[in-house]
Amino acid sequence: MNANLPNYLDQAESVKNRFTKLKQREVILEVKHLGKVYKSAKGEVAALQDINFKTHRREFVCVIGPSGCGKSTLIRILAGLEPHTTGEVLLDDKPVTGPGRDRGMVFQGYTLFPWLTVKKNVMFGLEMNNASTGEAAREASLWLELVGLDKFANAYPHELSGGMKQRVAIARALVNKPRILLMDEPFGALDAQSRAKMQAHLLEIWRNVDITILFITHDLDEAIFLADRILVLKAHPGEVQELIEVSVPRPRIAGNYTSPEFLATKARLEALIHPPKPVGEQEKEEVSITQHMIRFVNVEDNVE
Ligand SMILES: Nc1ncnc2c1ncn2[C@@H]1O[C@H](COP(=O)(O)OP(=O)(O)OP(=O)(O)O)[C@@H](O)[C@H]1O
Ligand SMILES: [Mg+2]
């Protein structure tokens, strides 16, 4: 680690003020002692254990952690798609007991209806909730303009790029005016260039809309670029390791991943997610590889 980096906890005055104001805003989401145990024929899996955090209005929270630490489980519980085992989830102080229009979801896989046009995809949720076709069309047009896809209103999903499909998915989620947008690796399937564009685009949308965002990602740069705070989970069972306040000032500059604050935050995340192995364990691994190779060589020899 570079010794010249600032401490990741150090905040410039403007950043400190931002966090003070942010924490004064109302709490939209509160997760209290949340636990989840999956039960199956093979036994029990403790996916989440004693998760606690709050998200304030218009806050952007990213969740990172190793594969299998329970990120998708967490977001599915928040969405009301998965029951939890212990604790509670409060949205606007009310317990979450099932899916609801107060939560918008965007997943990694493209979930648009292929037989509907872009505009009809966005109108779908509104029409299901008894909005008139005229009203739904007006709302859909507004949101498509906001995500920059008004010219593609009459296109079908298969005519769009991956990034454009995710923009439609964002419009479709926001058209219902949810209190929180829940995003599970939404840009995970995009190439690096489209992904960077979508990150900048999402921040632009967030700046213009009264929306709180909880965003899951594997990508440390993505988390630091987007988030106010980053919830770091560890695996088996999924527990909160740390809730980091990102000290990088806003507005953030796309592609600028080398500022001292950025690098300091990244170094901290790396240390939490990929901690160096104790010396004893490294040795064990090397020994087992060597033994495996010897066996492999012996097998080859036997063939001769
Ligand atoms: N329906 C299920 N039944 C049983 N176990 C499950 C189920 N869904 C997830 N799990 C287990 O719960 C744990 C958390 O899974 P989850 O999918 O939430 O992790 P994740 O952090 O989203 O992983 P990834 O980064 O790979 O997407 C894993 O051990 C997984 O095997
Ligand atoms: Mg997942």
Question: Which key features would you list for this structure?
Answer:
alpha/beta; six-stranded mixed β-sheet; binds adenosine-5'-triphosphate; Rossmann fold; four-stranded antiparallel β-sheet; disordered C terminus; 304 residues; 2 domains; 9 helices; 10 strands; binds magnesium ion; single chain; globular
Structural features, described:
Residues 292-304 have low confidence and may be disordered. The chain folds into two domains: 26-247, Rossmann fold; 278-304. The strands form two sheets. It has a six-stranded mixed beta sheet, with helices on both faces. It is 40% helix and 22% strand. The chain has 304 residues and is α/β, with parallel strands linked by helices. Strand 1 and strand 2 (43-56) form a beta hairpin. The structure holds adenosine-5'-triphosphate and magnesium ion (MG). Residues 71-72 line the site of magnesium ion. Magnesium ion (MG) binds at residues 71-72.
